[in-house]
Fold these 4 entries.
Entry 1:
Amino acid sequence: MSTIDSGLSRRDFLKGIGVAAVSLGLPAWSAGAACNPSRAALMTGVRPWTSGVYLNSNPWRRSPVLKNAVTLSQHFKAHGYRAMGSGKIYHGRFPDAASWDEYWPSQTQNRPNDPEPKGRPLNGIPRTSHFDWGPVDADNTIIVFWADHGWHLGEKLHWRKFALWEEATHNPMMFVGPGLTKPGGRCRRPVNLIDIYPTLVDVCGLTPKAELEGVSLKPLLLNPQAKWDRPSLTTYGWGNHSVRSERWRYIRYSDGAEELYDHDADEMEWTNLALDPKYARVKKDLAKWLPKTDAPEIVRGKGKRSQVDKSAQKKKQKKK
């Protein structure tokens, strides 16, 4: 099992290993709208509201829930696989040596000091100096291409990520697997990065893990049009959540503020319908998926929690 931060487009990556024609693309959203919470959720299968890992500054192994969590690569190691990684799999400041048999450049450093090591790449794939595991056996390999979050380039007058809107939370996901995906496959069901862990456990026949909070996407890999009644949820900061269905995005913030967008008519999310009584039923149906409780935020690297987050948590606790 290898996990790589390749730093190139999915077209170049899949073309380089000769499997682009048999991939399945899915509309995916991240579990967290920032690097650290998104990556921690994907690799542990535990959502931010359960772990308390909401921001880039939360050391995820300090979470009582994740302290002894078996990560995706650890679970495969326990079943006889060799786990190798490279690049930014976890957020840069929180590498996890226990997750890997081998990591480049080292178990405690995600990225090399020299961004363009001499003599690389050896695999012949363009612009992949940090991805150097070589060609793969496409007949005996499952490949998952993903990004940890989206990115605003001025949409809604916002820059970067750190928001619960579409551009910040929507990210690519592509599966390639022998006997799983068909040429030119495309799915429109809303899924989440947190579903990757249980999916790989399922399709590889590993022992199921009850603590995983995502679901297996195997039914959609086999039939992209299969019935799917689950929306995709994203969290950013304590008490702030977004629910994304095929048509709607519903956001509820820790102070009770709401947003509702109809993607059939407003894909850029300019018109907030949350206060229109005509859509009360839509909000109610989507709100059913919101968590009932939110774990306290994990103390940050310097031992402090943001004043904003602390005050929001106290306010919500008083309401209860």
Entry 2:
Amino acid sequence: MLPSLFVHLHHIYEWSTQMIIDCGGTLDVKTPWIGHMFSLFTIDPKNIEYIVKTKFANFPRGAYFNSVSADLLGHGILNVDGQEWVEARKMMSSVFHSQAFKNHFIHTLDELMKCRLMPAAEAACESGLTVDLQRLLVRFTFEHICVLGFGCETHDFESGEMDEIAKALEEAEEATLRRFTVPSTVWKAARMLGVGWEAKLTKSLHVIREFVDAIVSLRRKEMAAGGGALPRRHDLLSKLMQMERNTSTDKELRDTCISAVLAGKDTSLKRRFCRLGGV
């Protein structure tokens, strides 16, 4: 198992998925080289429903997952358990199910399609170049999630800064995933020494945090100027900041929004590919 893991590390998603399929949809792995940890991987819809819905409380992320993911996810909804998760879910759910947010979703989706996606597709058609559709939709989804999560404007994506943010998020996800493939002592030592993918993770996290912290600071100033309200903003961050019961610090707001963006960009992309394929 261990030798194969390192051989296929460059395409770990495809390799691990195929391995699970070959095992009938569920694979259990014992890894004595990571503190005698036992892992269970499944792509069976019934198992997934049981874990994330039917008996969700029986499957906490636990201390190990929390420690590995803490640098990227912080104290966001993807990295907390129990009552903390329940409270975080309630707050985010109230935003996502509000009519204002739904209208904002549709309006910004339409605007981005007209201003960003269609011009890019038309330019490719006129030039006669082959289009990497997946890459195009990945970028489009990232931009839409940033609009919904942080309140970014369409013109923000014309600068090179957003390219840097997109790259940083991708590299941070990849580096965090790699932590699960080695003993904790290995990645912690690499982080302390600033080498390998841990060095890349540290750099990516700095870019991400600096970007989000600047937006949170800007929203604080806008709220102060508007008497504690942001009537023209309907993004997740702005809505969370305006909740009376929300006493989150700037760091907690940052963690929440980063978790939401990471969770949303992949699921939204999958849905768009399914619709494109007529599924």
Entry 3:
Amino acid sequence: MIPNGYLMFEDENFIESSVAKLNALRKSGQFCDVRLQVCGHEMLAHRAVLACCSPYLFEIFNSDSDSHGISHVKFDDLNPEAVEVLLNYAYTAQLKADKELVKDVYSAAKKLKMERVKQVCGDYLLSKMDVQSCISYRNFASCMGDSRLLNKIDGYIQEHLLQISEQEEFLKLPRLKLEVMLEDNVGLPSNGKLYTKVINWVQRSIWENGDSLEDLMEEVY
């Protein structure tokens, strides 16, 4: 209950207007107190804004002995375009990236511990996945250590295993785990094709990678 004579006003445009002005200040380099060096590219920003969006940068800024000076953070393993996408997101809450850049944005978000962005990028990749790209996506998810993404991709691979086994990338898998389930509506010819693909994979791993048959059999069941 608001007491008599109490003034209360909420400016619905204030947040949107302030965010837009902050981003304009960033782009013009005004009042910026952090410099990001990304593979030779310099990007200016405001420490408080980045600290709110990135737990990784918050930890760096929080441990900075000169909290009133300009912070310098260097990244040699991130795509500058992807980092720029994340900077725009930090200032506008809008994530915009070309489809070719999504994996790099994911990698940058992982580095900066921006979990929401990482999840959105992962879901986007899943929405674009098909039998031609799923193995490549699985390799990416494995490199990123994303168990959620891996489980979803593995489910897709299991559902489309026969079609995927026709792809050249199937034989290049570093490891393989198969569950071959014979159901009443699954004919032996289809499974015969699948068994042939497994044998081809085993042969390739032995001849080209020097793997032992005993080790490979632990991966195929």
Entry 4:
Amino acid sequence: MDPLNWSYAKVLACHLLQIPAPTSDEMFYRLHGRVITRAQLVGVVASMQHKTDRTEYLLDDGTGEVLFVAWQTDAPPCQLGDLVHVFGRLKPSWESSVELHATKVVVVSDPNAEMLHWAQAQLLYQHVYNQRAPYVEATLPTPRETTLEALCRHAFLGLPLPVDTPDNDDALSVAIVTHLVQDGAPPSIRFRDAVANVDVVPPMDASARLGRFRKAFAILRRLGALYLQDADQDMYCLLRFETMAWPIIVQRLAHGQRQRKSDLIALVVASPACRQVPLHWVGDGVDAAVAAQRLALVDDHLALSA
């Protein structure tokens, strides 16, 4: 695994804007041929637009403008005209070639920070990012989880659901996941059926209920717990390692093939259904398959057990 793959690459806006969009066969962006999934930039907030579940900002660093999205709407991380240091995940955008889904936004008070970032980013771009990196098989870090994220991970891996009390904002999302994993529940559910059948506390009127459910479904899709299986029917399925990831792994390892763990993870998250699934969820599923002797470790590669 290239260490740059999961690091926040220090770049300029012009570097990101010249990166071609991922092809249908590969979901990742490439900088000098090396896969990058995250980036950091320093620039001025040139515009901001509030949406229902997010705020969209335009960052101008003097070399170009890049859109970044903050999903929190209650406390905006910055204001128009602020100099900010933005860390985020690279995602395709309908309006531009790439956008950042912000994971951290820091308002910078030192005006020299932007020039320092320019110098460092240009140096890295010319002398580091264009170098071929040695392959390093790394253990994926497990980030700190919210109660909802932990519950979704357990559902994905087929583990018993945790019983921690969720935050009030996450209660409906937790109720939806709990409803979908109960015994006898169908693998897929229409949105309207979920609105009608999932218990909500406290009760609410029809219009408020519909809006709350739409927001909860959007959150679960973003977390990698739900996949929109059929847009015309508004049909969703709960993502599980056993039904979504394992068939992909078996197909790749058929006929005695071997793959590194990181390559299997990348293969799974490259599939349309699993593109939002966190990498460490898939990694945990692979580790569980090894522990259950469904996969065998052979010379740092994985193969199907005989």
